[in-house]
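Notebook p. 47: complex prediction with magnesium ion.
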Amino acid sequence: LDSKYQVILANQNGREYLKLCGEIDSNNILHKLGEKAIGELISNYGEKIAWKFTPKNCSDRNFEIVIQLLISEANNYRWLVIINDISNFGQNNLVIRKALEKEKELNHLKSSVVNTVSHEYRTPLTNIILAVQLIKKYYGKLDSTRQMRCLENIENSSKSMALFVANMLLVNQAESGRLKLHRTPLNLVLFIDGLVEDFKLVRDSHYNINYTYECSFFEVQLDSTLLRQIITNLLSNAIKYSPDGGEINLHLNCKNNIALFKIQDRGIGIREEDKQNIFERFQRGCNASTIRGTGLGLAIVKKCVQLHGGEIWFDSVPQNGTTFYVKLPC
Ligand code: ATP
Ligand code: MG
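Predicted complex, structure tokens below:
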């Protein structure tokens, strides 16, 4: 450009970009580049200026320009304008940003795994060690009630460690596509009744599980192992997150080849900010930190539902309760 901002020389690409994003009059004087007056750009010469611009005839692009003073003699200037199309660079940036986000996510997952594993192992292991030490110290002198309490402690702690490992393996299997669906014929109403009865046997009696159903058919083709995972995880959550006890309702509705389960509790509920990620592995609600859990149950449930080609969703009001719905084609 000369002192009047007239274009006196441009290479082929330069000419194309000027046509696209410059405002040039019949005397070849450049008034604007994109939104910016050339005078304003030149006043910042030597600096890199980047901006986003949507030329009329072409999609959204990003430019970066650098203006250099070439000649300055007695009010006679020559300016070199370098227009750099950095749209693809922007795209690469996006790829890099996504990769960084992914890495951040993986790091977060890694620390969640380490935290959960160490926590889930430390507590039961400490219990086992204490119980064994007690038996050793008072060998042959403990009365039978105390002896039994120590053994139960060891049994429960070992069971919780075994369950955790089994859940980790199950999630891993599901994520790598190795968990398969095996539909077999079963009487759904009786199957669920059996699960609820098993639950009542091992759980605290201050919870009341009401099982109701409304079915136009009973015989279904579902994977009983995966179905057991779905129902037991949802029931155990309903109980666990209702620390004050209360009613748990499980309703089954079967019609038009669809089984719809509704599991309702009146517990602590799930907060708004936790709802979006609650099915992700190791995700736990911020109101659940004082209640033991690993954050694997719902991830397993969701995988089992998906393998059946079904759907899962929930309604929840903090302090008021949660209802999970599972719809399975059968
Ligand atoms: P576990 O792996 O032992 O099941 P967990 O119960 O913490 O551990 P999930 O079952 O995956 O893990 O549940 C994830 C989180 O969702 C829980 O930590 C809890 O915050 C929330 N949540 C699940 N079900 C309920 C419920 N019925 N009421 C309130 N919060 C719930
Ligand atoms: Mg759970």
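Notes: The helical segments are 12-21, 38-43, 87-137, 144-175, 188-202, 224-240, 272-275, 297-307. The first strand starts at residue 22 and ends at 24.
Next step: compare against the earlier run before touching the bench.
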